[in-house]
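Something for you to look into today, if you have time. What I am after is a single protein written out in full by you. I want to see for myself how the chain folds. Could you add the entry underneath, on a fresh line?
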Amino acid sequence: MADPSPGASVVDTLDLGKSFGVMLLSTIIVAALYGITFLQSLWYYERFPEDSWALKATVGAVWLLDTATIALNSHAIYYYLVINYNNPAAFANQVWSVQVELLVTYTVVLIVQIFFILRIYRLRPRAWYIPAFMGFIALVSYGLILAVVVGVFEHPSWNGVAAANPRIANWVFGMVVDTGITVVLCWYMWSEKVYVRRRCVMSIPLVTTIGSYTSACIGPTACSTGSLSSV
């Protein structure tokens, strides 16, 4: 009697609804979020034509990378559910677009984090050690993702995903950076609010700076949210 095909064991243990079905649904949701990102990015370029070229380039880069994420997700879904329809053996390994999408997604995350970290530094340059620490953690987090991607290219089996310890560490470091950015920005704005109450004088440079990055980050933060939803 002939040996069972390599994909037979995969079919016996794989629940398509909880695996590739989730991937399909997440791609649809991310595509909807990308539509919002697209409109918000256009709105930013139309609303703030006087912003610096560096800021415009940052928004454009995140927008472009988010577009690449949508394309890579779509390719992965098409590969598994259309090209390899009724081919269970193909489900055992990660296609190249899944691996590249992971790198692109976290590149977007790094860009957005560095953007806010630089804004924190500009608000209070004397407290340079705060953004320096967060920037270091953000780079370490991105380095861990690079290690994960290299490992996945060497061993593309899905079985190794659950044991990807660098990815877990990346999630922890990323959470630390995101939480730190939020807390520091709230702290800076609250302290400025207290200063205004005491002095009854509005600090024009600070308010202008906060308004600038709040408006300009509509595109990048939406891109990041859309991309992270697909992870």
